[in-house]
Amino acid sequence: MKRTFLILVITVVCAGLIGLSGFVAKAQTAPNQSKEKEFRIERSIPKEGIACIECHKKENPGIFADWAHSRHASANITCIDCHKAEKFDPDVSKEHYKQYERSDLKYGTAEYKVPVSAVVTPKDCSRCHPDEAKQYARSKHANTLQIIWIVDPWLNKGMNSDNERTTGCYHCHGTIIKLKDGKLTAETWPSVGVGRINPDGSKGSCSACHTRHRFSVAEARRPEACGQCHLGPDHPQIEIYMESKHGDIYTAWGDTYNWNAAPGTWTPGVDYRGPTCASCHMSGAGPVLTTHDVTERLSWELQAPLTVRPENFKPFPAKTNWKVEREKMMAICMQCHSKQWVVNHYVQLDKNVQEYNDNYFKPAKKVLQELYAKGLMDKSKFFDEDPELNFYELWHHEGRRKRMGAAMAGPDYAWWHGAYDMKPKFNAFMKEALEAIKTGKPVHRHTYYPNAIGNTTKPPEVVPKAK
């Protein structure tokens, strides 16, 4: 009896050991188990970084949660890696120094004191992302504040207030960050505009597209990231995209796209079915490399009054050749379309551009110049005479929609919101302008133009004075 019991115990134990060994073997190969690498590079978080995390976890739980879910967090990139500044930097937060005088806070002592700035710039990001920062710096995005200060009559003629600019124009184009008594001024901060001028001299804000503090590549790839600025009557790219077949595919299938593919690997036909703004203008595909310079791949300046090649756009000439850039965009298109499809699309676009230039813009511009030359309109202001407003909207609103609609395969914008709306706007302009030329009587001037009190001095940080 005892012998039988002993044999039974030994059998059970052996079976258990065999089962346990199998469990251990499976556990070691389970997908959620960490594996020791042959080469391991670890980067410990300094005590100052731990202090930041523990403090902001309580003070700003939303910020902490975003960071905790980011790729930065998984790589031990913490607050101070981005926000740390030099003691002599002009934008060091003096208010933040007070955090190290709090007796109610575990980390509120001088031991953890470190200079930080709220403003994180492309120069800061370039420590880890040098190529992206260089590409961005040469783009129209980074230089858009300079561009509008060169060409825009709202700024140069003072036809809107400084606060209208701050709450409107500068939220996309960016402000020139200023400090007063060590504090960021309300007129210039907060700002994540793509052309923001930072205290360290760099231009732009990476968080305009990769919003803080998650800095998600998936978020930046979605068309809505671009649509926050590229919308409305003057640059309705998001509306054009959503009405196009590309946008229709995105609406139907976007939830299945692999938005989190590693940078540089996002592939058409594999990770997504239909393109977004980013996949056409920035992401790599086929022989075309990824870029953060949205000026690339463009063969026309469709936002300009007179459509020109990008290298001939005087306010900010591209340092590229339009033929080379068109070949890049065509290569992107041919990831999903045949060559004949793509070639014919550009034939249609080029014809659309020629029609706009020759039949709408040039005739109107010639008459506008005649009104000024004959003293029938005053040049000291803009928008205070109806022909000026009609001419402006002819190219800035309907003219852009006509051209961009054709470029992005949005027929409703190429025609109904574009060419169709251009015709009565053109006729209204011509009717008043030609009547004034015929009679020699100046056009009506609106003597009271509301809130036309903006500063007209070009900021030297944006448009340096000629030597």
Verbal overview:
The chain is mostly helical and 467 residues long. Among the domains are: 48-118, no CATH class; 120-215, no CATH class; 341-439. It contains 20 helices and two strands. The chain has helices at 2-29, 47-59, 61-68, 71-74, 79-83, 94-97, 122-125, 130-137, 144-151, 153-156, 162-173, 217-221, 223-227, 237-243, 245-253, 277-281, 322-333, 339-373, 386-407, 411-439, and strands at 179-180, 183-184. Strands 1-2 form a two-stranded antiparallel sheet. The longest helix is centred in the C-terminal third of the chain and has 35 residues, at 339-373. The model is unreliable at 5-10 and 12-42 (pLDDT under 50).
SSE layout and pairings?
Elements: H1 2-29, H2 47-59, H3 61-68, H4 71-74, H5 79-83, H6 94-97, H7 122-125, H8 130-137, H9 144-151, H10 153-156, H11 162-173, E1 179-180, E2 183-184, H12 217-221, H13 223-227, H14 237-243, H15 245-253, H16 277-281, H17 322-333, H18 339-373, H19 386-407, H20 411-439
